[in-house]
């Protein structure tokens, strides 16, 4: 082997193919030949390649396990047969080169993208990657014309010279498209990418009309930005300049999706290029956009939002028919829109009975820094393959301007090689593409969509471009990026480069200029730039929100159900199939619920919930319940999903009674989610935003954990209606209660929801009985009001007999916003009224009995917002001689409802009455962690509710 290069010699000396590892490799190969799936993926790929090396006689014979043959000859030798002496092939060097060729092919497929021509600014030198050099494998100039078998490639020939093969590999994997897909474990999908890329060598071949259309889209993208830049100087717009190929990508995606049967596309994106998408993709009238810049647009919302947060919808014509486009409203929290889009898509899929996502397509547009940096990206990706959140695969497009927000050094931008590396967790392929090659961008988009439609998997197009201006139009990026912006200043622009290229191909010297003039004329006229936008088309799947507009929260529906219906439903949800073995503890729960259904005993919380769900689905209202432990319930109270104790497979043997309530019932969906709050709640918000007919519930494992989803609560749930006019009926169940479980398992942060309450934007309730949760859940769907409902649900009350309700409270009445005093007191003798909400009521009632304090009435406020002034005032006036009113709560004084509730109580007090506070002292932590201290505090606050007023006292 003296003719081998020093590089290859070093490789051989250290490779896993040589030296002391040989016995291990031999054993691995034997295992592979017997069963290919028995060896690790990387070894299987290597041995697969060896199987394509022709035999020495030129045949296609496959290798077989060696050891059985060796053992057979050894046995013959023992029996006096011919002695067999092992021998190597005469041409071991040729065999070595054949193997090296397969390794070279694998190297380009794996890391060829790192040599791809991706940066329009051409700032970085080509990385040193020895595995992509022929010399790494011992090849010399003399080997360039040697012919090798390439039947495991898709270059169109079964054999090629080494020179031809290297050229083909570099054209395919090192051009304007850098593909990453070899980490995909499924061989079929991996071979799909090899066939698609290698058969065309990653090069587009478009007719002239297609090229002209691409230029027209680039002209529109650049034209809008330059028009706005000159007409509205200094106003923020988050320009797309430098990334104009993105508009061509979106156009191709929509047209090709329509041709493949997609009827709806839901798009989520942050600021960069959003105005361009609104005008040049969705067809928003430029005149309407200009009115927003000029502050003359019609303002009909309580708050409104800036123009680069706005959503939009339209219908456009495609080769396959009309496609409805929806751009989701998005706040400044960048990637937070991702799960919202996915939830909206799932709702549309369910409405269309489209479980594979063939008719609805989610498209998420990312910035490079946010894609790598925002945790909600990972949380959303983790939903992709789960049953309750599957949306048929998402097309991700990254507008990669290589700079992020204000990062002054690329070493600080991320810890991964590519900003897209996070998607490898779900084996999503990535096509990195040079934004200065718009044809390559369009080709990459075509391939990405085709992959998504074929395999229902996520896929990424990473458009490497640049940002001509600063993060917004008011900063100076050269302050921190002088080298980069010298390059950008010298760059002629993607449109100019492509126009020159087409001119050189004979498509017209003035083509680009003519298109630019035509677009400028359309801008001056404020006309559509997307042709054709279908102004009068309406899909039969469109949601009519009209019945839910302009409704008042005081509008009530009839939430009671007849006794006969109660009993029928109770029988259905407590029955299990024959030969289905439930756990003994669950069997007891079902037996108890059957007794509750008959009216033999009072109804507990779990049964109240179940009967609300059962009656809704029986009436045609779907129910979707999700969260980290909702099937069983965190506190083992729900048992909506039953598990056969004798099942033999993990994915079998479950039964959901609420899916078997009646014939032709509405769906009941119960999903134990991944361990995520932000993405899952965002998903459910998105689902509810597109389906007012379904009771959509997200339950936190503990209410405390809702703070992990605070962005969704603040930016969407609480403010979406006043900012964007988007009504939403999502329900949050947040377990809340002070039972001595410490600071992380006590508080759902009620005070935060109180602070967010205004403009009748949300409903915040804290029910304390089984009948109350029953009526509250039913009310959420039956009355024609769609507002987010936040329920502070209990923990200890789930099994508190005092919180149970008689059957009569379900078959008549409704949800009580204030529960009046239920003890027979002499109204004129009452001197003090204690007002409270939640579990503390039962502590107060017990204390009153111990003290014999018949001059104290207790009122429970079950709906904290919107505050029920009329009902509360009527209850308070039942006790005309009251002098003291006390608000009592479990939470610390700076938390809970106190600071919100005091002015509502004060508004309804009579002259001379005083308002005081009984509860824990202000605290930086929501609860103490020491059990004895908790008990001391709890006793003190209950005692304080009956003691003389002191400290803060508010007098009417």
From TrEMBL:
- CDD domains recorded: TPP_E1_OGDC_like
SUPFAM superfamilies tied to this protein = Thiamin diphosphate-binding fold (THDP-binding) (SSF52518)
Keywords carried by this UniProt record: Glycolysis, Oxidoreductase, Thiamine pyrophosphate
- InterPro entries to which the protein is assigned, alphabetical: 2-oxogl_dehyd_N, 2oxoglutarate_DH_E1, DH_E1, KGD_C_sf, ODO-1/KGD_C, THDP-binding, Transketolase-like_Pyr-bd
Enzyme group, top EC level?
oxidoreductase
**E.C. number:** 1.2.4.2
- The Transketolase-like pyrimidine-binding domain sits at 603-800
Q: Does the keyword Transmembrane helix apply?
A: no
Q: Which GO terms describe its molecular function?
A: oxoglutarate dehydrogenase (succinyl-transferring) activity; thiamine pyrophosphate binding
Question: Which cofactors does it use?
Answer: thiamine diphosphate
Q: Which GO terms describe its biological process?
A: glycolytic process; tricarboxylic acid cycle
Q: Might you report a single GO cellular component term?
A: oxoglutarate dehydrogenase complex
Top-rank taxon, per record: Bacteria
Q: Which reaction does it catalyse?
A: N(6)-[(R)-lipoyl]-L-lysyl-[protein] + 2-oxoglutarate + H(+) = N(6)-[(R)-S(8)-succinyldihydrolipoyl]-L-lysyl-[protein] + CO2
Family per record:
Belongs to the alpha-ketoglutarate dehydrogenase family.
Q: How does it assemble?
A: Homodimer. Part of the 2-oxoglutarate dehydrogenase (OGDH) complex composed of E1 (2-oxoglutarate dehydrogenase), E2 (dihydrolipoamide succinyltransferase) and E3 (dihydrolipoamide dehydrogenase); the complex contains multiple copies of the three enzymatic components (E1, E2 and E3).
**Role description:** E1 component of the 2-oxoglutarate dehydrogenase (OGDH) complex which catalyzes the decarboxylation of 2-oxoglutarate, the first step in the conversion of 2-oxoglutarate to succinyl-CoA and CO(2).
This chain belongs to which protein, by name? 2-oxoglutarate dehydrogenase E1 component
């Amino acid at each position: 082997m003296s003719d081998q290069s020093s590089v290859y010699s070093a490789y051989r000396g250290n490779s896993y193919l040589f030296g002391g590892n040989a016995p291990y490799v031999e054993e691995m190969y034997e295992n592979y030949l017997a069963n290919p799936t028995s060896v690790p993926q990387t070894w299987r790929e290597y041995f697969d390649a060896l199987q394509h090396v022709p035999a020495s006689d030129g045949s296609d014979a496959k290798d077989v396990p060696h050891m059985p043959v060796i053992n057979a000859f050894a046995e013959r030798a023992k029996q006096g047969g011919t002695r067999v002496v092992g021998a190597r092939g005469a041409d071991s060097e040729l065999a070595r080169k054949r193997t090296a060729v397969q390794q070279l092919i694998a190297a380009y497929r794996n890391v060829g993208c790192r040599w791809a021509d991706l940066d329009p600014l051409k700032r970085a030198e080509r990385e040193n990657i020895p595995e992509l050099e022929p010399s790494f494998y011992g090849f010399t100039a003399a080997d360039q014309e040697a012919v090798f078998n390439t039947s495991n490639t898709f270059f169109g020939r079964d054999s090629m010279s080494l020179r031809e093969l290297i050229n083909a590999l570099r054209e395919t994997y090192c051009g304007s498209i850098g593909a990453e897909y070899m980490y995909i474990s499924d061989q079929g999908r991996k071979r799909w990418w090899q066939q698609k890329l290698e058969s065309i060598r990653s090069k587009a071949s478009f007719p002239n009309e297609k090229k002209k259309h691409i230029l027209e889209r680039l002209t529109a993208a650049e034209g809008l930005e330059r028009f706005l830049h000159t007409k509205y100087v200094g106003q923020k717009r988050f320009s797309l300049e430098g990334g104009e190929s993105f508009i061509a990508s979106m156009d191709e995606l929509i047209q090709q999706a329509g041709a493949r049967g997609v009827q709806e596309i839901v798009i989520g994106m942050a600021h960069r290029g959003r105005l361009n998408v609104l005008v040049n993709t969705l067809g928003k009238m430029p005149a309407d956009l200009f009115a927003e810049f000029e502050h003359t647009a019609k303002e009909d919302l309580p708050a409104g939002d800036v123009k680069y947060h706005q959503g939009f919808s339209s219908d456009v014509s495609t080769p396959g028919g009309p496609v409805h486009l929806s751009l989701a409203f998005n706040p400044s929290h960048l990637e937070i829109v991702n799960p919202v889009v996915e939830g909206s898509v799932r709702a549309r899929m369910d409405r269309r009975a489209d479980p594979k996502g063939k008719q609805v397509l989610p498209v998420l547009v990312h910035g490079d820094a946010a894609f790598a940096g925002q945790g909600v990206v990972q949380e959303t990706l983790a939903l992709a393959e789960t049953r309750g959140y599957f949306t048929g695969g998402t097309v991700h497009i990254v507008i990669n301007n290589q700079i992020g927000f204000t990062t002054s050094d690329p070493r600080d931008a991320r810890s991964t090689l590519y900003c897209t590396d996070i998607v490898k967790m779900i084996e999503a392929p990535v096509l990195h593409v040079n934004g200065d090659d718009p044809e390559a961008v369009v080709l990459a988009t075509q391939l990405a969509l085709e992959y998504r439609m074929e395999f229902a998997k996520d896929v990424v197009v990473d458009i490497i471009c640049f940002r001509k201006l600063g993060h917004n139009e008011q900063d100076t990026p050269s302050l921190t990026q002088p080298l980069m912006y010298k390059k950008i200043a010298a760059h002629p622009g993607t449109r100019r480069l492509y126009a020159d290229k087409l001119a050189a191909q004979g498509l017209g010297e003035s083509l680009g200029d003519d298109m630019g003039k035509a677009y400028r004329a359309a801008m001056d006229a404020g006309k559509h730039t997307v042709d054709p936008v279908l102004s009068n088309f309406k899909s039969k799947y469109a949601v009519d929100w009209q019945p839910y507009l302009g409704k008042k929260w005081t509008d009530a529906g009839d939430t009671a159900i007849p006794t006969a219906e109660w009993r029928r439903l109770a029988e259905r949800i407590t029955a299990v199939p024959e030969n289905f073995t439930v756990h003994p503890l669950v069997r007891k729960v079902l037996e108890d619920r059957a007794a509750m259904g008959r009216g033999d005993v009072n109804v507990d919380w779990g049964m109240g919930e179940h009967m609300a769900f059962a009656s809704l689905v029986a009436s045609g209202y779907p129910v979707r319940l999700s969260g980290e432990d909702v099937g069983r319930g965190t506190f083992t109270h729900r048992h909506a999903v039953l598990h056969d104790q004798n099942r033999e497979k993990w994915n079998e043997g479950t039964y959901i009674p609420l899916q078997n309530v009646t014939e032709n019932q509405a769906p009941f969906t119960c999903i134990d989610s991944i361990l995520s709050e932000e993405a899952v709640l965002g998903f459910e918000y998105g689902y509810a935003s597109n389906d007012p007919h379904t009771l959509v519930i997200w339950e936190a494992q503990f209410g405390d954990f809702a703070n992990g989803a605070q962005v969704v609560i603040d930016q969407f749930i609480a403010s979406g209606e006043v900012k964007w006019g988007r009504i939403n009926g999502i329900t949050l169940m947040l377990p809340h209660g002070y039972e001595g479980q410490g600071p992380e398992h006590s508080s759902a942060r009620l005070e935060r929801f109180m602070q967010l309450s205004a403009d009748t934007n949300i409903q915040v309730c804290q029910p304390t009985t089984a009948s109350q949760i029953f009526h509250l859940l039913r009310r959420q769907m039956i009355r024609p009001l769609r507002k987010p409902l936040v329920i502070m649900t209990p923990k200890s009350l789930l099994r508190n007999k005092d919180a149970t309700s008689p059957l009569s409270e379900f078959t008549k009445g409704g949800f009580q916003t204030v529960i009046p005093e239920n003890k027979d007191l002499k109204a004129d003798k009452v001197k003090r009224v204690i007002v409270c909400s939640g579990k503390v009521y039962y502590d107060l009632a017990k204390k009153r009995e111990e003290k014999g304090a018949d001059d104290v009435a207790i009122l429970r406020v079950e709906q904290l917002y919107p505050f029920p002034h009329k009902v509360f005032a009527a209850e308070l006036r039942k006790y005309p001689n009251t002098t003291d009113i006390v608000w009592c709560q479990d939470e610390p004084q700076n938390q809970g409802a106190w600071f919100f509730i005091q002015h509502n109580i004060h508004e309804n007090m009579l002259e001379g009455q005083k308002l005081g506070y009984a509860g824990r002292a202000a605290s930086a932590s929501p609860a103490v962690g020491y059990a004895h201290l908790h008990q001391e505090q709890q006793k003190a606050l209950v005692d304080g509710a009956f003691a003389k007023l002191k400290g803060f006292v508010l007098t009417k």
